[in-house]
Amino acid sequence: MIKWATRKPRPLWRQPVALAALAWLIIAALAACLAPTLSPVGPLEAHTDQSLRPPSAAAPLGTDLLGRDVLARLLWGGRWTLGLSVIGLIVSVGLGLPVGLAAGALGNPLDAFLMRLVDALLAFPALLMAMAILAILGRGVAPVAISVGLSAAPAYARIARSAVLEVRVRPYVDAARALGGSEWHIMIRHILPNATAPLIAFAATQLGWILLNSAALNFLGLGVKLGVPEWGAMLADGRGYLRNGPWVSTFPGLALTFTVLAANLLGDGLQEALRR
Length: 276
What we know:
Helix content is about 70%, strand content about 0%. By secondary structure, it is mainly alpha-helical. Helix 1 (about 15-35) packs across helix 3. The two termini are about 25 Å apart.
């Protein structure tokens, strides 16, 4: 008889890559929260006589066209970028989770209707959908967070439905149903707690997607006001000076890249740690 080798889940603390990703996210969040303390100068403090100065002891990451300190803007920009992304993730989970739970737990015909609607929404490129939602809501910080959350909700609903379908056929769910439990009671008491592992892992991965798309919308000038330090907006500010002042775009680009990568790696690590 052939015995197939099965790999046991590895706890998160035994995954160096996932731990490094988690550490980066914690450091980025702390740096954003402590920006007033860590920032050498104000993010909007301009000195036109110090325009496009390269990194030095006075300005460790250089200055932009208006002489504003790039390090200060990078620290303060983390507040906008990470804050918008967290709000977008909350919107995505808050909308996608109930839809996925209802579709997976209650079955046809509600399942068929909700999933065809989700499939129709997934057919649109997510960034294009976010821009269409922005066209309805109007430009601004809050509309950007809402639009990226709404555009990410269909994917989360699909993952939530898959997790529910896997759990609902297990014996303890059948036992609860045989004892007369209502579908909503079974969903909240038995299905949802046992379907959280893939939902948590996907939420971490989705955070990276939302980070990237919220920065893209701000790069296009659809979010924060002109001059406000945000990583996507800082990339847009420095795109015209890549030859004379590459540091203006390089450092926010690196911060965004490493943060998106860390979110994806953490999602992979959580998926491995929570795998059953």
